[in-house]
Amino acid sequence: MTYPLLVVPFALVTVVVTLVSARRPGAPARLKASLWTALVLVAFTAVFDNLMIAADLFTYPEQHISGIRIGLAPIEDFAYPICAAFLLPAIGALLPAPRRRSQRDAA
């Protein structure tokens, strides 16, 4: 099982960074937006991965996947969009706010 093992570090980093960012202002709204984004990305992944696999654009060797599938797509494919939906906003919340240029700095 290669692909499931590749998912583990991404998922762990996502969980840790998301939990750390939960202390920042606006966390409930950000997490809700991440959840909706994840749902949309999972739906797109389900549709387009299945279409691409059905069109023989790529395949997954059976010995490298968990065996759990949604249609033709292995379940591991869905971890990356979920991680992206939560990790990127969490990283953004942890970055320092950009400094605003004052009128004097602009001159």
From TrEMBL:
<protein>
    <submittedName>
        <fullName>Lycopene cyclase domain-containing protein</fullName>
    </submittedName>
</protein>
<comment type="pathway">
    <text>Carotenoid biosynthesis.</text>
</comment>
<dbReference type="InterPro" id="IPR017825">
    <property type="entry name" value="Lycopene_cyclase_dom"/>
</dbReference>
<keyword id="KW-0125">Carotenoid biosynthesis</keyword>
<feature type="transmembrane region" description="Helical">
    <location>
        <begin position="35"/>
        <end position="58"/>
    </location>
</feature>
<feature type="transmembrane region" description="Helical">
    <location>
        <begin position="78"/>
        <end position="97"/>
    </location>
</feature>
<keyword id="KW-1133">Transmembrane helix</keyword>
<keyword id="KW-0472">Membrane</keyword>
<keyword id="KW-0413">Isomerase</keyword>
<feature type="domain" description="Lycopene cyclase">
    <location>
        <begin position="8"/>
        <end position="90"/>
    </location>
</feature>
<feature type="transmembrane region" description="Helical">
    <location>
        <begin position="6"/>
        <end position="23"/>
    </location>
</feature>
<keyword id="KW-0812">Transmembrane</keyword>
<dbReference type="Pfam" id="PF18916">
    <property type="entry name" value="Lycopene_cyc"/>
</dbReference>
